[in-house]
Each structure stands twice: as C-alpha cells, then as structure tokens.
User: Fold this.
Amino acid sequence: MATTARSTLTLGMAVITALTLTGCAGFGGGGGSGDADDDTLTFTTWASESEQAAFEDLVAQFEQESGATVELNVVPYEQMFTNIDAQLGSGDAPDIFRVDYGNLGVYSSQEQLLDLSSYFSDEEVDAFTPAMWEAVSFDGVPYGVPHQTDVSALLVNLDMLAAAGIDTSTLPTTQDDAWTWDEFAEVATQLRASMPAEQYPFVVNWQQGGVLRWLSWLFQAGGSLMDEDGTPQIDSPEGAAALDFTRSFYDQQWVPPASTPTGTVYADSLFSEQTTAMAFVGSFLVPDLDYFNEFEWTALPMPRDERGATDLGGNALVATADAADPDLAAEFLRFMASEDAMSSFCGATNELPTLTALEGDAVEFAIRPDLMPVFVDQATTIEPQDVAQLTSPAIAEIGVAMSTELEAAFVQGQSTEDTLANLDAAISEATGS
Assistant:
C-alpha cells in the first residue's frame, strides 16, 4: 500500500522517466480511439488496497445510477504514465485516468485532456477549495476535477519526546499554536542531546521523487520558486533562509545523514523503526502506520515561519480530449467529485476532500480519526500561488535540478549562494524565461 500511495506525491518527476520508456505489455488500454461501445467508459488508475475498494464501490454506484458501464483498470503506479503517454500518442488512451497534480500540467498544456469549462457552473466551481481548482486548471481552463488531496504533517513518538524531557501535554495541535522554526529547532536540539548516536530527532519526507516537498520550507519563509510568468524567484533572502535552515538539519545531526533527497529509505519507515522521534509524513500513510507502529504516536502541525505551508499531494481525475463520449466522461467526473462520493472515498482512504462543504469534521475517517483534524487544518495553509508553481508544466524538469542541487548543499558542502544561483538558472532553462 505504501508504495502505490506514496507515489501520488512524486509531483511530476515520473513523467521525465516515462517519456524515455516504451509501453509495457498487459496494460489495458482505452476507448479514446472512438470504437468503444455505447455508454461505456474506460478508467485507468493506480490504487492502494483501500483506494481500489473505494473506486470499485463508487464505480458500481455510478453504473447503477447512470445505466452506463465503467471498465476499471487498476495498474501499478510504476507503469501508469509510461503507458498513458504511449496510449495518448497512439490514440488509444482510456477515457478517464487518474493523475497527480504535478503531472497534470504536462498533459493539460499539450491539449491532451478534455476541457471541462462547459460542464461546471460558476457555483459548482466555487464549491471547491480555490487552491485545488487552481491545481486542475491551465491558463484558467479546468482540465480535470480535484478528486482528493493529501498533505504532510509532523508525526511524533510520544514516548521518545517524553524521554527527552519534552512536555507532551503542551504539544501544538493547530496552525494557531504551531511551533515556529526557532521552537522546532529547540525541540530538535533537546532530542539530539538525549538520544544515542544511532537515533535522530526527525526525518523529512523528501526522498525518491519527493524533493519538491522542500518547497514547503521555502513557502514557510515567505518565498517563491517562480512568478506566474515562470521567472525565477528562488535566489532571494527567503530562499537563502529556507536553504540555510534545512541545511542545518544535517549540520546539527537532527536527521539521519542518508535521508537526503536521493536517499532510498522513506521517512515513515525510519519513524516506525524508531530511528527517529518525529517524521514529516502524509495522511495517506496513517493506515499503514497505525497497523505497524507499536508505540504511542500523534500528529502535529508543521512548523511555520512567515506563514504556514505544506506540500500539495493527492490526485485529479481527468478525461482525455478524444474520449469516445465526452459528455458521459464529464458526467462520471462530476459524480466522483460530488459530496457523497468524495466523502465516501476520503473517509475510506484517510485522504482529504477538496470541496469546502467537506472541510472540518464533515468526513468520517476510517482509521485514527483523532489525527485527521491536524491534516485537515494543515491543508488550509496551501495557497493558490503555491499550487500554480507546483503544477507548472516545467515542474518535473525543475524537480530533477532541485534533487541535484539540494543534495550538493546538504551533504557536499555547496554554498547557499551557488545552490540558489544554480536553481535560478535551472528554472530559467525549464520555463524559457
């Protein structure tokens, strides 16, 4: 489960890999060629066990209510976009597919997706969280529905914090009382002083394609990656503050030295093994952690500096531009993004809704509902300008450069000045600015 769910947060980097590979045999195709049966949709997705069960239930409900047939094709994430790219090229793509918000910009900018402008009224658009509707839009045009989202918060091992003399009865629980960077550093310093060398205060979940989660720290500092025209903004005092603070994680031995953007061990694994006392982790991993963890743990809001911020996880559902029946495809997307369907899906999977009517405690989460208000509250820190940057068609290429440059800064001694200058140049090249 963790592998497929975690992959929803790669934020576009999979596309670069996918474009270099050929299609895999055995991957079911689509109905985009125009030869599909009447009232039949093809829907391709990857899914965890809980997600697949939820998709199957909702597909059955849609079929019963609409009289249509939906052919659900669940595939490994590793194959997903390689094959979608090949099928789009051959005109045999599925009518509907799932895509993370980072990858969506690549497809929408190439006119490969169905324009949904005529299928949603202004009132229906306003029902979505503005940042999430921004996530499915390109040049102001919606090319999908924001099906769900996922954000990171800070998980803590209560026993390990108590052993370090930290009062666990006064831990922050909301954005209003979230730790500042300075307060978070004090906690990390206290933990480091009390722990054996083989344990660490915390770990950040920016490994293996998650490098864009570093931008949470940039946004917290009040900085930006680029402006709306793609002009780099990262080489700035705010960029320097974010880089210096995150570099201190390694200089102060607050994080495992191998847990860099190119590391191969995920943050949730290090937390479950009690190698770290705290971990930045997305809500989609709560079910796994609840099953495996044999210690008492809870969730806290991420630290904040000039503002609160977090990562943009989750996925949209999109229809291809040459779907056999665009109206039916749009009807299915509208159904999946309805209050009842979204509440059911998110509640079963510990993922977060994108409709404002489902904010707060409106969704009944199946596992550890006591933790989910922290993630729900954390999601409110995502601002539309953050989303616009994270869904840029250039973000995949930028992410590759970020992985290289942050690795050089964190473990190879590259200066803040050189790192920011290199990132600035990479953004300019990727956006053509």
User: Anything to note?
Assistant: Residues 49-66 form the longest helix (18 residues). The chain has a mean pLDDT of 90.
